[in-house]
Amino acid sequence: MTRSHEPTHFERLYQSNPDPWGYLTNAYEAGKYDHTLAVLGDTRFAHGLEVGCSIGVLTAMLAERCDALLGIDVVAQALEAARSHNATRTWVRFDCVRVPDAWPDGRFDLIALSEVLYYFVPSDIDRIADRVIGSLCPGGTVLLVNWLGHGDDPVSGDEAASRFLQAAAGRLDVAHQDRRPGYRLDLLRSPG
């Protein structure tokens, strides 16, 4: 595959199943979320960004650590579910944004890319890394989570994470790396 997945790819998934990855019911997802939050520690973030927020399950968990949080996705149906799932969290906003061609305005001290990078070709991952670094506050945190299975994606999760790390080399520091059954997690920080 020579192109990043188009929005229509994801629209079809949500049309056939409103929770196509089982975020609400899958024990793997629950364990991954617990691990993700544990790696973030007790840090409180002023402005968070979640790229590829889907139906907003991780968003709800990240929201408890953020004073303001923006979730972005390319599928309107997913964003509707995310808004509903987070309706009582008035400090959480959602927007339809197609990265890397577009990127939200603002500066963020947390940017989460959980289970999204492998949907992009390497050149788009490079552009995403540039976008992330360009909008990250000094001392800010970048969280990458990537599935290690095999699918019809442009790159594997390992390739996606490695490409992002390569593109960010010298501009972000690796603070933590971990592999668990099924996924890897990389925590990066910008120099303070």
Brief overview:
This protein is α/β, with parallel strands linked by helices and 192 residues long.
Brief descriptors of the model:
6 helices; alpha/beta; 192 residues; single chain; Rossmann fold; 7-stranded mixed sheet; 35% helix
Give the SSE layout:
Elements lengths: L6 H10 L10 H14 L4 E7 L5 H7 L2 E8 L2 H10 L6 E5 L11 E7 L7 H14 E12 L9 H12 L4 E8 L2 E7 L3
Parallel strand pairs: 1-2, 1-4, 2-3, 4-5
Antiparallel strand pairs: 5-7, 6-7
Helix pairs in contact: 5-6
Content of β-strand: 25-35%
CATH class group = Alpha Beta
Q: CATH architecture, please?
A: 3-Layer(aba) Sandwich
Kindly report how far apart the N and C termini lie. Answer: 38 Å
Query: Strand order across the biggest sheet?
Result: 3-2-1-4-5-7-6
Largest sheet: 7 strands, mixed
| H-E order | HHEHEHEEHEHEE
- Radius of gyration, whole Å: 15 Å
Total DSSP helices: 6
Number of domains: 1
CATH topology, what is it called?
Rossmann fold
What do these coordinates show?
There is one protein chain. With 192 residues, this protein is α/β, with parallel strands linked by helices. It has a single domain (7-189), classed as Vaccinia Virus protein VP39 (Rossmann fold), CATH 3.40.50. Helix content is 35%, strand content 28%. It contains 6 helices and 7 strands, in the order ααβαβαββαβαββ. The chain has helices at 7-16, 27-40, 57-63, 76-85, 122-135, 157-168; strands spanning 45-51, 66-73, 92-96, 108-114, 136-147, 173-180, 183-189. Strands 3-2-1-4-5-7-6 form a 7-stranded mixed beta sheet, sandwiched between helices. Helix 5 crosses helix 6. The radius of gyration is 15 Å and the shape is globular.
